Amino acid sequence: MTTIDRALALAPDTYDFLLTRGLLLKAMLRLDEALVCFDRTVEKRPEEPAGHSNRGMVLADLGQFEAARAAYDQALTLAPDFVQARWNRALMHLLLGNFTQGWQDYESRWDFEALNTFREKRDFDVPLWRGCESLEGKTILLHAEQGLGDTLQFCRYAPLVAARGARVILEVQPALAALVASLPGVAQVVARAIRCRHSTSTVRC
Predict the structure, then answer these.
(1) Contact at 8 Å (CB) between 56 and 68?
(2) For the chain, which residues make up each domain, given as ranges?
(3) Is the pLDDT of residue 57 over 80?
(4) How far apart are alpha carbons 125 and 199 in whole angstroms?
(5) Which CATH number fits domain 2-114: 3.30.565.10, 3.40.50.300, 1.25.40.10, 2.40.160.40?
(6) Using one digit for the tens of pLDDT, what is the confidence trace for 131-155?
């Protein structure tokens, strides 16, 4: 912080310095001060999406969700492919229970390099189930995508999927295979390390 403050003392209107200082303040949970920095970045360069997106992050942290949404929307109006803004908007919508918009924006995770250093998008030869089509008489592959905690959280939906008439194959990390084997409605559990024959499923999720 000392270095960036010295830099700003020499060049107080430098956009990149203001952006960096705002991010540092946010990391230190000095949110009101961070917001001031991002307000200044938007004032100096209203055409730059990063200032609007970072401003949205701080506003969301402050609980000012409508203002945060407007900031994210502005960032995406300026740069529709600005993945960080779409990802941050996704998290906010999901937090607020706006699941339709939230899950739609959440698909941007595959384009956000900062999130994908530890995983890769997988290709399947069966379509993605989006919740609208009937599952009666079909086989569905529910596959883990993120960490162990996320897998445990979402495994609880397997019985609900089975209740829709589907045969459920659950693919999880090897460490969880034995634990989830007793879940009601799950016809088969496959450890992620073992190659699953996806051709046996009709859809996946």
Answers:
(1) yes
(2) 2-114, 139-204
(3) yes
(4) 7
(5) 1.25.40.10
(6) 889 999 999 999 998 889 999 999 9
Residue 143: beta bridge partners?
Answer: 171
Quote the pTM value.
Answer: 0.76
Which long-range contacts link 81-84 to residues 24+ away (Cβ below 8 Å)?
A: 81/111, 82/49, 82/50, 82/53, 83/108, 83/111, 83/112, 84/50, 84/53, 84/112, 84/114
Residue type, 158: A
* 173/150 Cα distance (integer angstroms): 11
pLDDT digits (tens, 9 = 90+) for 117-131: 545 667 788 888 988
CA triple 80-84-85, angle to 5 deg = 55
Per-residue CA distances from 147 to 135, 154, 189 (Å): 27, 11, 17
Instruction: Provide DSSP, 26-68.
Output: HHTT-HHHHHHHHHHHHHH-TT-HHHHHHHHHHHHHTT-HHHH
For the residues of 103-139, what is the DSSP string, one character each?
HHHHGGGGG-GGG-TT--PPP-SSPBP-S-S--TT-E
